[in-house]
Structures are given as structure tokens and as C-alpha cells.
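SECTION: protein entry
WANTED: fold as C-alpha cells:
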Amino acid sequence: MTRIELYNLVWSKPVSTILHEYAVSQTAFKNICKENDVPLPKNGYWQKLKYNKKVVIIPLPKSDKTYDNIVLPIRLEGEEGLNSISELNLLVREIKHDKR
């Protein structure tokens, strides 16, 4: 996932919904966003949006840093969250669950 894709994801649905799709903890997800300079919606953003109130969308800041490919492991059916997972373990997990 690219930085822009992460930004679009964060601003398209609440973090709680995102965490149901991806196998990361809330803290880990917020750290990923922080490391990649991706702003999160402020508290109350989704409630205001729901009731057609004025909301502030924080633009993606420009950055000179080079961002690596951002990895968010997809949550498999019946799987609990993965608080921290190494790249090697991610690959092993992906291979084990590959239907090909």
C-alpha cells in the first residue's frame, strides 16, 4: 500500500472499521500512520459527518522522506489481531493461506 492509499483509507472509514479488515491493533495502526506522516481524523469527525455537520479534512502533508511500501496484513476469517508481526512471519502467513 502506498502512503496516498493509506491516507485515502483513513479518511474513507473509521479506524474501528479498518481494524476489522486488517490484522493490526489500534496502537499499531496509529503508529503506522504516524511513521508515514498520515494524519488521522480528529475525535468526533465521523459523528459530525453522519449528521451533516461541518468537518475538517486534514490534507496529506508534503514530505521529502521516502516511504517504503506500507504493509497492513489482511485479517483472515476467525483470526484475532496481530499486534506485531515481522516481515518474515507475514510472508509465512501469506504462503500458508494462499489457495494457489
In short: The chain has a mean pLDDT of 85. The chain is about 45% helix and 0% strand. Helices lie at 3-12, 15-21, 26-35, 45-50, 87-96. The longest helix spans residues 3-12.
